[in-house]
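Most newcomers find our protein records easier to grasp once they have seen one. Nothing more is needed to start thinking about how sequence determines fold. Here is such a record, shown just as it appears in the course material:
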Amino acid sequence: MNSPSPTVDTNERPWNDREIDAVALRIKAVAHPLRLAIVCFLLDGERSVSDISEAMGTTQPNISQHLSQLHNQKLLRSQRDGNRVYYSVADSRLRTIISQLRDIYCPLPD
């Protein structure tokens, strides 16, 4: 005999719609291939825009646009030193998630 399945009261969800939207925007920001590559690169430490641009093989204006999107989602922090801007991963949870993904999908050769 099957018991009736429990019903979920939508008023008791652990997250509200605004929180879900905010998380979705952050995931979307990292889901772009170049932005994901930038975040992976920054796991090793703070880097300047020119360092990131050189490592990614694209122009500084292009990198700056992508950095801005990640920064606007509070995933990166920036620090100015003279005429250089340095970026680093701001959210330790993002660092953990991306590190785990990198370990699973991009293992270092033996």
The chain has a mean pLDDT of 88. Residues 26 and 73 are 6 Å apart (CA to CA). The two ends are 54 Å apart (CA to CA).
